[in-house]
Amino acid sequence: MKNIINIYTLFFIGLLLLNACNEESSFNELDELSMSIDKIETSYIIGDEKVESLYVSGMLKDETIASEEHMAQLIQDHERLYKNNVRLKYSGYDVAVFKSGTCSTSRITIKLDCEDSGNSSSVSGWSGDSFEDSNGNIWLVFCACNHSQFTNYGFHGYAVLQISDVNYLAEDLDQIHLYLDNEDSSNSNNIYIDGVSQGQNSTILYPTKITANTHLYWIYYPQSSSGSFYFPKSFASSYGVLGDFNNNYAGYIYSDDEDYNNDNYDVLNNTTYNPSGFSNIYSSTANTKFYITQILNGVAQ
Fold first, then answer.
1. What is the DSSP string of 122-179?
2. Which domain holds residue 82?
């Protein structure tokens, strides 16, 4: 009798241990799954309801940064895509400048769907035709041109948007890749060419590319004492380039990017992550600030 009781007791204990192991296994699997899901991003679909609110003074904004592992994988994935993708030169133009008034070539507009909750995007000073809309989203407006029209400037380094292949290394220029982690939920990023929507995932401006997030590529012209002191004016009498020539940060566009697990990054020449020396060109942390200088009749203002 005692032996029978002991057998039943052992059997019961075994069932408890087996159940505990199964529960622990299930928990670990769920835990690993939850850890592997870093961000869930969705694109806007017609009919979606988007609730967007602006920042109010005193509001507490909880902004977090994505893990280094996630960001490293993000960079690796995009670099692989960049090497394999077929780039299309847009209508004979390979760069673009910030549009201001008349543009004799083509108008390129990039919509940045910024953070929906407590959005603090802003535009200050001269920004050309680029603007912040009533929901705090940023619209970058450019005028297409060719990088061969530009050269190093004698007083300051500056950058123009890259919209096609440029052999920048052969010309002693630099390439800056700015990645903006835009709003995660029902994202409405877009590209417009002369007012016509291209939608997300269009390669028309590659390597610059808009998905639910934004990849902006810039060709950077370093300052050179032997460089020119004037800018081209054949395609527009007034436009803007990326860079704070007056060192007062007066003209800028500030994009309040995604608050949750933000994975903004910048890369120089596809090799150097988070490069230094460009603080008067742009600022890229959990949000992005573009510094802009107006060029008027070939002269920096």
1. EEES--TT-EE-TTS-EEEEEEEE-GGG---BSS--EEEEE-S---TGGGT-EEEEEE
2. 68-300
Beta bridge partners of 108: 142, 193
User: Which residue carries 């948007």 as its tokens?
Assistant: 161
Instruction: Tell me if 1 is assigned to some domain.
Output: no
Helix (H) or strand (E) holding 80: helix 68-84
What is the rounded CA–CA span in Å between residue 273 and residue 245? 24
To 10 degrees, the CA torsion angle through 101, 266, 60, 188?
50
Beta bridge pairs of residue 255: 288
Identify whether 87 is part of a domain.
Answer: yes
Q: Give per-residue pLDDT as tens, 57-116.
A: 554 545 555 555 655 655 555 555 544 443 444 568 999 999 999 999 999 999 999 998
Phi/psi-derived region of residue 69, left when phi > 0, alpha when psi is between -120 and 50, beta in every other case: alpha
Residue 235 token pair? 């395609």
**Distance from C-alpha of 135 to C-alpha of 115, rounded to nearest angstrom:** 10
**HSE toward the beta carbon, residue 287, CA cutoff 13 A:** 18
**Cα–Cα distance measured from residue 291 to residue 285, given in angstroms and rounded to the nearest whole number:** 14
The DSSP code for 295 is E
Q: What backbone torsions phi and psi does residue 257 show, to the nearest 5 degrees?
A: -80, 180
User: What is the distance in angstroms between the CA of the first residue and the CA of the last residue of the chain?
Assistant: 100
Alpha helices in the chain (DSSP H): 2-36, 68-84
Q: What is the pLDDT of residues 230-285, one digit of tens each?
A: 999 999 999 999 999 988 888 999 999 998 889 999 999 999 888 988 999 999 98
Nearest CA among 106, 118, 112 for reference residue 133: 112
Residue 146 lies in a domain: yes
Tally of domains within the chain: 1
- SS3 of residue 274 by DSSP: coil
Whether residue 58 lies inside any domain: the answer is no
